[in-house]
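Milestone M4 deliverable, item 7.
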Amino acid sequence: MPFAYPRTIHFPDTDAAGVVFFANYLSICHEAYEEALHAAGIELKTFFSDTGVIIPISKSEAEYLRPLACGDKLRVTVAPALLTENSFAIRYEITRLGGGDKLAARVRTEHVCTSRQKSGRVPLPPALAAWVSAG
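Output delivered:
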């Protein structure tokens, strides 16, 4: 079941035209990703130092379906999926709430697990693998 993150669009999210700046969609999705991990019991403050991994985004894509403006209430759903033993994707749907909920954007990111000590990919840590599998 996808994780749902509620959010309000704030003035700094928007550009001079009064709509969300395109790059801020990725920032909003990353907030939702962090909240989903926290809700799954993964403490980000210690997760990376305890596991010795880094998990950079290797690919991102976005489809902007309708504009979002300051004050809009959102629901961001987060749905992870395993790609390989050391990579996963997250599908996000950003829905504008109220007056008939409307899908505003679809975003997808791919993440690769690497090690600070070793060169190259390493398997996902167990807690992260469990979160991805449950998604």
